[in-house]
Amino acid sequence: MPEYACIHLWEITDMGHGHDHHHDHAHEGAGGDLSPALDLSIPDSELSPSDVSRRGFLRGAGLLGAGAAASVLATPSAAQAAGLPHSHGPAGGGTEKGGFAWLAGDHHIHTQYSSDAQYRVIDQARHGRAFGLDWVVITDHGSVAHAKIGVEKVNPDIRATREELKDLLTFQGLEWNIPAAEHATVFVAPSKHEVEVLKQFETNYDGNLLPATNTPAQNEAAAIAGIKFLGSQVRARKVEAALFLANHPARRGIDSPHEIRNWRDADPSVAIGFEGAPGHQAAGIPAPNGRGGARGYYDNNPSAASFPGYPPESYRTWGGFDWMTSTVGGLWDSLLAEGKAWWITVNSDSHVNYLDQSDRGPGSDFEANGKYNDPVYTGKTLTTAGDFWPGFYGRTTVGATSWGYKQVMDGLRAGRVWVDHGRLIKGLDARVRVAGDRRSSSGTPLGGVLHVKRGTSTEITLDIDLQDVPNWAQFIPVLKRVDVIVGTVTGPVADKDAFTAPNTKVVKSFEVGKKSGRVSFTYSFGRLDKPFYVRVRGTDANRTQAGLMGAAVDPVGPKLDVLGDADPWGDLWFYTNPIWVLPK
């Protein structure tokens, strides 16, 4: 396992802030000396008073001792230091902000190499670039045909797209049928071995290709083995990086909390998160103008395979977002409260797109050829299609150190990510700082960890560029409110199927009083007395209700989406990934 996959919460230092605060940083990373307070081979009687105090504090917080190694955070990297000069790609893609190139992308896109899709790779890529994306991942469905011939057949199309669209980063991946669970994006950095690695992975670990006689326990073990295989290919230098992101995790209720934890713990350098909001956002547009179904195709009910603890509300989206993400104090927060680096994304899951006028090419034989013939114009408008083109509605914006494939993957792994629907905002910079430090080069960005001494005052600063140009539905979104959400880090859970975080809640809501330019907000956390994390969301405030955990936790959260009447443009949200503040 890579060194950083074993790093404890308290071992991550200087992560995301190459600056000189008015406090000390303890360099206790995986390659450094262990602090006496953390070395349990040293008895309390031999520690200094300060180390005794520190050990007691960490032990009381559940961050020291048995099971604490499961509390891992993102990779420490000098590349996360803010304020460094960065270069862009051939077309100057992305937006420079806070020392990073912010690159918008989509990691869940299907083509004619999927049994339920129809477009060419270049079609999806051109649309994605036209709608403002800097990177895309082609993720055709894992299947017998795909494993046998599809992985190899799509690769020349991807390589040709890379050559034609040099200002778009086009990754090859696949949508994995996770054994015993839902689907996931799996993708790798471009390499001469990309086909070999993906083909071997799909052949050996795809749920559709495993024996039908497997027990659930055997399938869960196969999923863990698959994630570990991807990590082994990185260590063997077959590919420079490989990532896993669980797709539409609450759609059918079959991604149990313990499975999600086990995926992440199998290799945190590979398994990094899940979709905070699913694709298929056009599926809720009311008839006769649309399909009249559920946003994200979240129109299911519990089955025998579903985790029995999930509530009925988990099978629907909330403001377009998955219940696991949208519920303050819910499943995502339960992972963050453990100190687990687990990030959210959004994407299109584009198969067949709303208002398109094409169909699969005539005479197609998918089973024989592993693809459909090139799409043809029909003149018939697809009002019942459930998808949008990549970049048309949802985007995952990644803070990269520069423009490039590995840089995007590094930014995703580090959690420097914010997501939005309908281009709600133009840009965002969120930093946690020691109170009063306003230097532009300081602050810990999204996904980062700030270590400070107990009693140090900290605050979050938010700079948000408001939208001033129409989105692709031809209106200018208006951000109305920004919520700051804080949760206590309580350490590893005793029950791996836990999915609540009782200490997490909205601590501050800022009303946005203007419609253009930039807005800035600061919220003080006071003096550090226990480890915590903070995340942020924002909304146009068109549809809201109290959250599932009650108004005291989330007074004006996203509203439960209605089957058959869920216009995706009717309420827009953005979410950030978290920042942690931990004691030294």
What does this structure look like?
- By secondary structure, the chain is α+β, with helices and mostly antiparallel strands.
- The chain has one domain (102-583): TIM Barrel (Alpha-Beta Barrel).
- 19% of the residues lie in helices and 23% in strands.
- The chain contains 10 helices and 23 strands.
- The chain has helices spanning 49-60, 121-130, 144-164, 194-205, 216-235, 257-266, 323-326, 331-337, 366-369, 405-414; strands at residues 95-97, 100-109, 135-141, 169-177, 183-188, 242-247, 271-275, 343-345, 358-359, 376-377, 394-400, 417-421, 425-434, 449-452, 457-466, 481-488, 505-511, 518-527, 532-539, 544-545, 557-558, 573-576, 579-583.
- The chain has a 16-stranded mixed sheet that branches.
- α3 runs antiparallel to α4 (194-205), α4 packs antiparallel against α5 (216-235) and α5 runs parallel beside α6.
- The longest helix has 21 residues, at 144-164.
- The two termini are 26 Å apart.
- 55% of the residues are buried.
- GO terms for molecular function: 5'-3' DNA exonuclease activity; 5'-3' RNA exonuclease activity.
- It comes from Paractinoplanes brasiliensis.
- Keywords: Hydrolase.
- Residues 18-30 have a biased composition (Basic and acidic residues).
Summarize this structure as a short list of keywords or feature phrases.
584 residues; alpha+beta; TIM Barrel; 16-stranded mixed sheet; three-stranded antiparallel sheet; 10 helices; 23 strands; 19% helix; globular; disordered N terminus; hydrolase; TAT_signal; Histidinol phosphatase-like PHP family hydrolase; 5'-3' RNA exonuclease activity
